Amino acid sequence: MQVHQNISLRQYNTFGIDVKARLFADFSSAEKLQELLAYVQQFSPNSQRMILGGGSNLLFTKDVDGLVLKNEIMGFEQQKEDYEFVYLRAGAGENWNGFVQYCVQQGWGGVENLSLIPGNVGASPMQNIGAYGVEIKDVFEELEAYHLHDKTIVKFANKDCAFGYRESVFKQQYKNQFVILSVTYKLRKQPVFHTSYGAINQELEQMGVKELSVAAVSQAVINIRSSKLPDPKVIGNAGSFFKNPQITKAKFQNLQSQFPAIVGYPLENGDVKLAAGWLIEQCGWKGYRKGDAGCHAKQALVLVNYANATGKEIFDLSEEILQSVYAKFGVKLEKEVNIF
Ligand code: FAD
Ligand code: NAP
Questions:
Q1: Which residues make beta-bridge pairs with 335?
Q2: Numbered ranges of CATH 3.30.465.10 in the chain
Q3: What is the tens place of the pLDDT at every residue in 57-71?
Q4: Do residues 166 and 243 make contact, with C-beta atoms less than 8 angstroms apart?
Q5: For the chain, which end, N or C, has fewer CB atoms within 10 Å of the first or last residue's CB respectively?
Q6: For domain 236-339, which CATH number applies: 1.20.1090.10, 3.90.78.10, 3.40.50.2300, 3.90.1170.20?
């Protein structure tokens, strides 16, 4: 096993932030992870441990004075099958969109709306990734995770994960305690399509699709995303920096009377979800740039690193945005990106 010292993490995070890790190693199985942890324990017993996937939902604001563990557990394995579903286990190190495309090729439904989300399978339960009206909780069967303190492998069923809007137990009370090793998803043999969200139906029409298929929906999502979202390979970013805030109906009506164009989506519990991007845009941040840190010109929810911004500069910009949205609308934005 190889443990690197003082290496740059720039290529390991889609923001392209140039911080260093005191120690860095990858692992390709639960056994190798255990060996690695035992080995590092000998010469650096109390080092902080950070789990890294594809680095597409985090912002490094300083060097990591500890061990960065890069998950490289690969492989797909069909666990079982019944009349309705196929149960497919994927290694946490598999690329998420690679997994989606594997399902699309088999004609299995459930994850096509989540096409082209960057990152790895292992991080998909972390914030219950979602797009175009679908979340992974809708297809999640179970996961296996290694508990760093107890040194045991634990299974989590759907109900154990406390999935919420871009939330789970792993982002809250179990933060940095478990290394997710594999995730099993439950995919439909007869897909049920969700095409009414965003511009999917319009895109399908433009593509000339007459009969829906998982491949067609996946392609429509890929087309929309590619035309709208900044590609991290071209410009550093971690997708939406903030969550869409959820407020009471009364507060929404009050805001609507002051800002008639405000965008709100009613939720099942009676609250209203606001589009954070719209709030930020109204505060004049869209296209803003200070040094190499900025707010994307097409999508105000995405903060960007034009070249050499530091994590602290991006973080400070996010705080300024947060404060201005609060001052104008009385709404507190919450960061979606994980700050290290
Ligand atoms: P990382 O950024 O590496 O890690 C994220 C967090 O998970 C960290 O706290 C890390 O410690 C932890 N973690 C990672 N792997 C493991 C593991 N195996 N075990 C335990 N903890 C782990 N997100 C959405 O929900 N919907 C979208 O539509 C979406 N679109 C995006 C578009 C762009 C252009 C970008 C850059 C990002 C987008 N994201 C979106 C955010 C991001 O892609 C997802 O949250 C993704 O799941 C992060 O995966 P990752 O492997 O890169 O995680
Ligand atoms: P969009 O379609 O322009 O919509 C703007 C916002 O309005 C979205 O955030 C979405 O909320 C909400 N919305 C749109 N139609 C809705 C409907 N029918 N019902 C309820 N809410 C609706 O958004 P976009 O920026 O192009 O992104 C498209 C999808 O990809 C969204 O689901 C978005 O969450 C996802 N995405 C996520 C990230 C990330 O990093 N988390 C980055 C890029 C895109 P929701 O966000 O709650 O869906």
A1: 242
A2: 76-228
A3: 999 999 999 999 999
A4: yes
A5: N
A6: 3.90.78.10
Q: Which part of the chain has CATH 3.90.78.10?
A: 236-339
Query: From the CA of 58, how far away is ligand 1's center (Å)?
Result: 7
Taking only the tens place, the pLDDT of each residue in 115-135 is 999 999 999 999 999 999 999
Q: If we measure between CA atoms, which residue out of 125, 164, 165, 129 comes closest to residue 145?
A: 125
CB 122 within 8 A of CB 92: yes
pLDDT given at position 45: 83
Fold adopted by 4-71: 3.30.43
- Cβ distance 87 to 80 under 8 Å? yes
Residue range 76-228, CATH number: 3.30.465.10
Residue 123, ligand 1, Cβ within 6 A: yes
Pocket test for ligand 2, best of 196, 265, 278 (most atoms within 8 A of CB): 265
Residue 172, token pair as written in the block = 């809250």
Per-residue confidence (pLDDT) for residue 286, from 0 to 100: 97
Q: Tell me, using a 6 A CB cutoff, whether residue 277 lines ligand 1.
A: no
Mean pLDDT of the chain: 96
Which part of the chain has CATH 3.30.43.10?
4-71
Q: Is the CB of 54 under 6 A from ligand 1?
A: yes
DSSP of 159-228: GGG--BTTB-TTTTTTTTTEEEEEEEEEEESS------STTHHHHHHHTT--S--HHHHHHHHHHHHHHH
Q: What is the pTM for the complete model shown?
A: 0.95
Centroid of ligand 1 to alpha carbon of 335 (angstroms): 13
Q: How far apart are CA 253 and CA 261, in angstroms?
A: 12
29 lines ligand 1 (CB under 6 A): no
